[in-house]
Amino acid sequence: MIAALVVAQWHEVLAWVLVGTNAAAGAWALAAHQWPRLRGRPLWAAVIVAQLMTFAQAITGTILMARYDIEPARLHALYGFSAVIAVGILYSYRTSSWMKGKEYLLYGGGCLFIMGLGLRETLALA
Q: Which residues contact 67 (CB under 8 A, 6 or more apart)?
């Protein structure tokens, strides 16, 4: 049972990391749309790290449910998997012809949306 507590604590820590990294990456991407000097590889690295946190959250949550038979709170899994799907949607839209020149807006808004999903469920559990 100690292992379940460790995974649950890790899941909680990752939730706040997800919120923080997506907030920072989203704000940075929106600022980069306005100020081109903020663009570049470091921004995209931050976006990748932020979005990888979504998968880390989903994996630890799945482990808690499957291995330790812990039931999530109402709508908890919905928010988690909605965030994973949002990452996929962002990735698929990035090369659309109508998104040309708006990639920073796409990822800025998308990261803030994912942050909101994480924040909503994290605060709902508190």
A: 4, 7
